[in-house]
């Protein structure tokens, strides 16, 4: 039976790519967003994330959180929105998969230093990385949710080509054989749908980089 997937904030760049990938694989996709449906999702519910209820997300095999906030005053929404979605699927079999950030990846084996704490990390992105890292920390505390947090590579390219190939990493920043930390949104979407389809990384953060 085809999996039923919900994508929250589906009209964003990542949400669109994930919807397209999932539909192309024959999945039944419902998008949630605040505007009109501009995606491949077969079904659409126009509703704000914070207005979603348990009933809205009932019966899905997986819920993808593709929410993003980038202005200083909205950065705390990364945590509040994620906890809201976690509350809605808590105690159910529905998986919650999160489009995460790269800044919270570790750059050392001892897991003491995040990528966002390294000298070359752009100052402009540090507040966003901190906010997304805080959301991940809160998610780690949830034992009542079947969550998976997927961090992209450091260079997350919205318009990058789709190769269909990627390297799966864990908590640490992973470089490909060319020494790069890069992935396109399209290849990230492949990894996300792969995890929904056959992944078993329950209550884990994983990461992906172009092969």
From TrEMBL:
What are the boundaries of the signal sequence?
Answer: none
What's a Gene Ontology MF term here?
Answer: oxidoreductase activity, acting on the CH-NH group of donors, NAD or NADP as acceptor
What InterPro entries does the record tag this protein with? NAD(P)-bd_dom, NAD(P)-bd_dom_sf, Polyketide_Oxido-like
Residue span(s) of domain NAD(P)-binding? 11-195
Please name the Gene3D superfamilies in this protein's record: NAD(P)-binding Rossmann-like Domain (3.40.50.720)
State the protein's name. Answer: NAD(P)-dependent oxidoreductase
Organism encoding this protein:
Lactobacillus equicursoris
